[in-house]
Design brief:
The structure is a single chain. With 429 residues, the protein is α/β, with parallel strands linked by helices. Helices cover 34% and strands 20% of the residues. Helix 7 links the parallel strand 13 and strand 14.
């Protein structure tokens, strides 16, 4: 870990001083490359990086002339940096239930700095942060973009929008005398429009609202719909006016169906999506971001982390069903995103999701494509990230094994580059 931090600190210094552009280009050689576009592994090619972008991919003998620094990744497997469509960087896996009531906004921000670095070093070079108190994720995003701290590229949602007494909207554990609400609480079409505008004002790059109750919010039902169809349409319409995409937290079938009818871009969790919902998602091109690993953590370690029995009972009800609906969605051909809900379980272990995706119907290549090509398109960044393609950002990772043979290899990434800067290299060391 000390070695990793020294590497990361050096990389940060390069970013801050602007010295990266004065450096020679970098050539990554000796590795097999996973071509996520064609769905195959390519051998014998090198990848050249200049000024943070991929400048060349092909046989070494055709490498353009120039000042190149060679990085030997002999025998490793090279692939695009991973992305996660659903994380909570300012949350901690050991802070659930009543413990959350003691968590200040400033403390959440400090945790975000630590968790951002951990996430990047785990190979996730881009994440969508779907909800944080006090716009802490937006400040975190800006600090990373400006080179002050180390972390992945962040698409921040700011404060999640939710109803009074619902998931996202309130601290539902507290009695009337100690009322506490989140900054995202809003009721009615005009209030939700105002919250979308407010989130945009403070830097949000995506809108997230809660369309049903949640597993981890006491006194909310995962079956219960939060927000009427009219309110959901108001959220989506306002976001469209501001050129923002919309993600909805939704477990129960009614909330999912209404959110789809409202035109959301992605459904988060989608635990109880019906066949009708799957068909509508296909028709509209909606993405499903189904966190099918997290149930294992909640049911095995959740109690020790402070998760209340009410929430554990809800997870027992919905966990397996979500995996079965994931399988049905994959078989039907829905656009699938990679979303882990990291923060509910430990940051940096996002890749625990991959084996579950393979277990429940995906090939290793398909699982990898969700965390590269699919997420890039969902984020609106398909021209910047998601594949090892000339002109795209040099977000590249490598593992010593072959994740197409054993997807668990992605749980221990050995090389991480983001925007041409190497943050981790444990290959051939």
């Amino acid at each position: 870990m000390i070695f990793r931090r020294l590497l990361a600190a050096t990389a940060a210094a390069i970013l801050v001083t602007g010295a990266a552009s004065a450096e020679p280009g970098t050539v990554l050689k000796g590795a097999h490359i996973i071509d996520v576009i064609d769905g195959k592994k390519v051998r014998g090619h090198v990848v050249a990086i200049k000024d943070g972008k991929i400048a060349y991919v092909g046989p070494e003998r055709r490498l353009p002339d120039g000042d190149w620094t060679q990085v030997d990744l002999d025998g490793a497997t090279l692939m695009p940096g991973l992305s996660d469509s659903h994380v909570h960087l300012t949350s901690g896996a050991n802070v659930h239930g009543f413990r959350r009531l003691t968590r200040s906004t400033s403390r959440a921000a400090i945790s975000g700095v630590v968790n951002a670095e951990i996430t990047l070093l785990a190979g996730f070079t881009t994440v969508r942060n779907l909800g944080a108190p006090g716009f802490t994720d937006i400040d975190l995003m800006k600090a990373i973009d400006e080179g002050e701290i180390i972390g992945p590229r962040i698409i921040g949602a700011g404060q999640s929008i939710g109803i009074t007494g619902g998931h996202c909207g309130d601290a539902t554990l507290l009695p009337y005398e100690a009322q506490r609400k989140t900054g995202g609480r809003a009721d009615g079409p005009w209030e939700v429009r105002q919250k979308v505008r407010e989130n945009k004002k403070y830097g949000a790059r995506v809108i997230k609202f809660c369309g049903t109750g949640g597993v981890l919010s006491p006194n909310t039902s995962i079956n219960a719909q939060q927000y009427s169809l009219e309110e959901m349409k108001a959220i989506v319409d306002e976001a469209r006016l501001l050129d923002l995409k919309v993600a909805v937290h939704a477990h129960g079938p009614r909330g999912i169906q209404s959110a789809l009818e409202a035109g959301v871009d992605s459904v988060e969790h989608a635990s109880m999506i019906t066949d009708e919902g799957i068909a509508l998602a296909i028709e509209q091109g909606t993405y499903l971001s189904m966190d099918i690993y997290v149930s294992d953590y909640i049911l095995s370690e959740g109690e020790a982390a402070g998760i209340l029995e009410e929430s554990l009972a809800k997870e027992r009800m919905v966990g397996r069903l979500q995996r079965e609906r994931f399988q049905a969605a994959v078989e039907a051909g829905v656009n699938m995103a990679f979303g882990s809900d990291a923060g509910v379980y430990p940051h940096g272990t996002n890749a625990r999701q991959f084996p579950k995706m393979v277990e429940w119907g995906m090939s290793p290549m398909q699982a990898i494509q969700t965390a590269t090509l699919s997420n890039a398109t969902l984020f609106g960044l398909e021209d910047e990230i998601g594949s090892i393609t000339v002109g795209k950002s040099a977000d590249i990772i490598a593992v010593e094994g072959d994740p197409l043979t054993d997807i668990k290899e992605l749980q221990d990434v050995d090389f991480v580059m983001k925007e041409g800067v190497v943050y981790l290299n444990e290959i051939n060391q």
